[in-house]
Amino acid sequence: MKQFILKIFTLILLVTTILGLFNMRKITEKTYVTLDVDYLTILKQDLFSLMMAYPHDIVDIEIENKHTVYLILKSGEKLLYDDLKNKTETEKLQNPDLQDMMSELYLLGPVNGLMPENYNPGRIRVYPLLKEVYGANQVEIEKNLTGIRVNSSYHRFNSNNSASLHLNQALDELTHLLKDAPHLWSYLHPIGGTYNFRYISNTNRLSPHSFGISIDLAIHKDDYWQWTSRKAGEKRLMSYPQEIVDVMEKHYFIWGGKWGLFDTLHFEYRPEIIIKGKYFNSQPQTLWYEKLPVKEEKVTNIILLIEERLKGFIVLFSFHL
Predict the structure, then answer these.
(1) For the chain, percent helix, then strand, then coil, each to nearest 5?
(2) What ranges do the domains of the chain cover?
């Protein structure tokens, strides 16, 4: 009789456990496959990259309930780092948090072919951040635009956050390169476009051109994933001069040629993506900040702020069963 009762109890416990795990799976909103130390390291690296990229617009970090992280903007608005939701790629594009935007590492330097179609670092954009930095609407954005001279023509670009300054510096360097590498001319001219307040085709999302932070260089029929085949796009990609890419990346422009949904003529001013790619590659680090130039005061100040604000931070984990 005791053995029968024990078997019944064990069966009930087993069923209860299975139901509990099933319910846990249903309510799980996000899956983490890294250890808590890995998540915390990436969190700190992302916060650093963002605060270095937007030093006048991101002013502080706030932690709620020991596990919810916000970046505080100059306007007082708060941006959530991680909403703990498991999203499709489309959902990340439509409703991203900062963690979604920073999740794919941008690879600096040469590439040896097209990226996988689902690998598009920098293509996810947190629009409240862009609106805070570059202008909340078309009127505000256009007040922040300045003229960029390219040969005899002028193109408008956003002056906020040193965007136009870095573009001018990049174009000056490329113009200097033309003296010894005239073949670059056909890749640079005529300029395809800079500021253009418009939505991305077939979406309700503003193009980065709407904020005046993107430049399309000379247009080729095989530059864009919707215009051509992947085979033709890769051939164009592999012929693209690395000198141009290196100069643009040096000045914090990501290249659409490093997206699986390639946009080879497109360069976009995204200092946060470049900073993360420069200092925080996939190689393990004992200290999350060990590759940073810690002798620079602004770097040290941000590291200290992050360490201070994240004291007592708790990583919430849920596992996909």
Answers:
(1) 45, 15, 40
(2) 1-30, 31-103+294-321, 106-279
